[in-house]
Records
---
Amino acid sequence: MTPTRKKRLAIVALLVLGVGAAAAVAFTALNDNMLYFVSPTDVHAAAAPEDKQIRLGGLVAAGSVQRDPDSLSVRFTVTDGRHDVPVSFEGILPDLFREGQGVIAHGRLNQDGHFHANEVLARHDENYMPPEVMKSLESAGHPPEASKQ
Amino acid sequence: MSAELGQISLILALVLAALLSVLPLVGAQRGNEALMKLAPSLAIGQFVFLAGAFAALAVAFLRHDFTVSYVAMHSNLLLPWYYRLSAVWGSHEGSLLLWMLLLGGWMLAVAAFSRSVPRPFTARVLSVMGMISVGFLLFILFTSNPFERILPGPIDGRDLNPLLQDVGMIFHPPLLYMGYVGFAVAFAFAIAGLIGGKVERNWVRWSRPWTLAAWSFLTFGIALGSWWAYYELGWGGWWFWDPVENASFIPWLIGTALIHSQAVTEKRGAFPAWTVLLSIAAFSMSLLGTFLVRSGVLTSVHAFANDPERGLFILVFMGIVTGGALTLYALRAPRIMTGEGFDWVSRESALLLNNVFFTVSAAMVLLGTLYPLIIDFMGWGQISVGPPYFGAMFILLMTPVVLLVPLGPLTRWKRDGFMRVVRPLATAAIVSIVAALLVCAWLESWSLRAVTGWIGGFWLIGGAATFGLRTARASRSGLARHQWGMVLAHAGAGVFLIGAAMVEAHTFERDVRIAPGETVEAAGYRFTLHEVVEVKGPNWRADEARFSIHRGDREITRMAPQKRHYHRGGQTMTQVALKPGVFRDLYVAMGEELGESGAWSIRVHIKPFVRWIWGGAVLIGLGGLIAASDRRYRGKRKARESAPAAAEATA
């Protein structure tokens, strides 16, 4: 092998090694930061992991929002038309949070099926329905009206 | 009436684009001067009709023509004229029209400013861009026609999404699209080079100012979007690693790699194939970004109501563009000449490292963005990837970049000694560490993130200054524009780093319940709520909270955040109150009224050095524009290798 070739080989080997290492780190980080999406039906079927950060999605049940006048605590129910999950949240809800509208909450599920949200997701557009929520509503047999326009 | 004119204009633009994509290319292949000469005229004609279509839509908005369904959906009688104008690109159909208009604008610029480039080459470039035009015009006409009528039209329209009724939103999409679309120029140059069969240094020199300009606009566009999200979304973040943000960030990362690899290819002839590949990748990623935003396959705070058919069209289009380009590349790449070799310690190596880190970062962001789609497609469930993945990976990949950036410009081409490069930076290194420690002592911020952020930031700024001073001393004429641009951009990266580190390390954030007369204490500032009153705007009414802010005994300022209720559409929106400052921002947003007591939930943030984030980004973008304006990219070059090109251009 000529010196130039040797050098090229070394560069390529280094690159492959580096990219391989980066990919390994990336996939580890990906798996650590994966958030599973669950629907109320999944929660009911005990298919949702407990005490792990997950994303719960569905519709905010009509008439379910209860606000504590003395603190920032809010309780509401997320439903997919078949099953309900009670959710509690401490903080400020996004502007487009409405009863009867789609919602995604990040948080943990405790043993008695109560969901503690630490983040409730906002959207940019009132007609928008997150694709996961759409799918879960459809599979529960309740396609939402709002998404048809 | 204007809608029909717009529609006809679009169709005529399509016809011209179709002619443009064929005739000059044939002319260039056959050496037919007459056909090649058609290219600039066709590009001008296309632009005129695109501008006509755009104007027609604008007129429909200004005149409240609600028989145009797009206008009826996104405007109403109460909307002020400036938001009616920006509503033209406020949603899918119109924003694609803007995309197209800007592509036409770039083509016009290429036609106008390519006198020093040989005619066959310009003809091929414009033909390739014509093909892209055809694709997008078909897309607009068949899936996203903004001129569609509804008869009879409603008496009043709905509303422009209130989030978009904002000055940031008037400028954000045009700037971002200028960048996205601008990469089409770099793409077209690379393809034209491949078609021409002789990819050499010249095409890279011609392509460089365009790539730099596009990349600068993209930088401004992303910065503006981040600033807008910061004050408009009401949660005070400046970057969310949201799929749509990533969609604009991936082309930026590739573009950053591209402008650096172009430097090597132009100056030394090294990595020519890689530069071609990056040119293709930058534009492909722009198309991918468009696909991700427009198809709505990903959950995103940015996602708008959407249509799978459109997504499919873009995906197919992207497949054709990328697939075609890569096939051409595979056929022609073996003919691409390779440059001279270089040593381990050399400018080439430094820029190679830059490229490795930036492309790997782009791949990392792409992986995290597409991972949910892959998992879903495989039927493994529905997941999303949390921001910590991106944050951790990005810091990991960018730390070596920050360390190496000051070394690069001081390294000689081909071969250099490590100590020769490092020695002049010793001062910068010592000064940056001492200065960083002093600043942290003064700010009393001893978190790891803040300290490393300051050291890194000062190191970048000091490194840029070292290069600038040494170069200015060495040459009689001072710094050339492209050197000024680089110094500014690298220093800007330092400013950005300081801002980002301080915001992430020391943001004070509190959500509280507050009633009139009460006071909230936040990091030495006292926020007192005096009253909540009702105020009225042109198309909304709002609850406005009146705060006074004290520090010590002194009143610093008054702030009045609002909760707006828009008449049409009935949407509610948080209007943040901001007190910006060089060293910190005060930020108050209203939540909601709590019961009947008159108390509200509010969000108070103190954001240290947050302006430095956008300030740094603006410096980076300005650096790019200054570099793009360097005289060496324009006019007749005296250098040996472009002499034939100049001769050909004047012939």
---
Amino acid sequence: MAQVSIRKVVKAYDGGVQAVKGIDLEIADHEFVVLVGPSGCGKSTTLRMIAGLEEITGGEIAIGGTVVNDIPPRDRDIAMVFQNYALYPHMSVYENMAFGLTLRKFPKEEIRKRVENAARILDITPLLDRKPKALSGGQRQRVAMGRAIVRDPKVFLFDEPLSNLDAKLRVQMRTEIKKVHQTVKTTTVYVTHDQVEAMTLADRVVVMNHGIIEQVGPPQELYHHPKTRFVAGFIGSPAMNFIPARVENGSGALRVTLPNNITVPVPESRTARYQGAAGRDMLFGIRPEHLTEVKNLDRDNIAVFELTPEVIEPMGMETLVHLWLQGAEVCCRIDPTTPAEPGRPMQFAADLNHMHLIDPESGKVL
Amino acid sequence: MSTSGATRDLPGIYAKAGSLSSERRWALWVAYISLIFSAIIFLAPPVYMFITSLKTSAEVANLQGNPWLVRNPTLENYTAILTNPTFLTFFWNSAKITVMVVAITMVISTLAAFALARMRFWGSQALATGVFLTYLIPETLLFIPLYQIVGGLGLLNSSWGLVVVYPTLTVPFCTWIMIGYFASIPKELDEAALIDGASWSQMLLKIFIPVAMPGIIAATIFAFTVSWAAFVYPTAFVTTPDEMPLTIGVVSQLVRADTFAWGQIMAGALLAALPPVIVYAFLMDYYIAGLTAGATKG
């Protein structure tokens, strides 16, 4: 097991297109790090550079303190799980898992012990004699993980391993992966485009966009303290609302004016931070769960105003209310027992303790 | 309410289903008629060969009566052929040449296809197309320059000369089939093997060859057929009976001046066709899977 260091790593393709634009990242021993971002953000390329499947154009990658830029994949002591499983179709599950060890000339007895142990961890012992085509998607994914576990490598690399599974199985396998990591504790780099997967699995989430790292941090930190508009909008489902707003200084206190002449006061604790934005157009960011029906008015910094719901989506444990303010879609999360009807104005409460102000030009969260 | 009542309530759906099935019936009729027609055309020559092989020379020469019927069936042509040491030499030559050619072809084209399909190098795409284009040049044009080459190697009138020459026909097409098959194998499979610790040669031997077995069998059958049935090259390069393969041996040695031993020629040709028939019968499914794999999976 080992730490992974990524220093100023660049990946450029012929023609000058840069997929990764000089990123820095330190991954600690035993850590589970998830690279997340939209398609083409460079997350898979970064993972493949760690694996040695893509050449590094600039910078360096070190695994366990050794720079691996010029070391072929097989000598990097890593194991990788692919989106399409990449099981060898002509080999049984046992042979698939044993393949890497056989090539490395491990004694037969040791191979058997390791495969059986991994099979036990993943609950696939009864499948060891089957061929991959006789397995379901979830079982194949387990075998692919088993193939990684038996090698006992320094680092596990996962490239969107759950994307080929149906929704229910994905949730189940997600838990499984977390459980396996808690058991074997191998340093793990996991790539996904699904922010829920990132949030649930990661010790630290790395949000990437256009070949750069937008923010690195534990899931809760990214959720509550995003540094950029991209991170604020990418993490969380439904996404954070961004409402055009103007910050004004009035009678000693800061105010934010939203469309429909809605004015909310900036909480005192944030006045200093937002002072510089006075007199400027900003984006008011607030998550749907902080824009609810009126309740708990005894708390500080709750602003109440009237809005007209346009679309109501009952989800069971909650109801989502959608409406549009000056072209910006706004989503509110209300209690399913609260009566709401499209077209009938109702009172909403915004919890300003969780508000954000975003500079629309730089995209930075203040 | 009964099920039939419910059926009567839904005439639209059933009318549509009826028209679909009548379309299907038409398609089947057309398919059957064209298949029967082609089967007759393609089966008529071998059937006629078989009938003739059961006739005596006198009966073949007799123009009276229906040539498709045998009046006095006899196996004397087969006995004559199978006890004729020259025929057995032809058979042995064909077998020897074919085994060698298939082996050489498969080694060259597997390695070439693996390199062209997987090891990205400058010009690999152009090279792959070039390999296929060489297959399009007809052998009737190639045998003249090849005659000089084979002559230069001192292999004229030798079955070894054919072993050298046949791969020019088999390697390009087999390589092409295998490139298609190898290309249909997901890239992640080699990446997984690379990470598992395989070298390129281990990847080829332990992953690509087993996974691409249907393609390899298709290519093998092709090389076998081409080599077994080659006619132009042996006609051009081999002149003495002890070096001849079956294809030219049967037609050249069983004709004495103007006398055609038709019964024996037909018996010999049928026996010569037996090995490919057996090979195809056993490996037909692989052959089809191999030829279509690149197209459907790629």
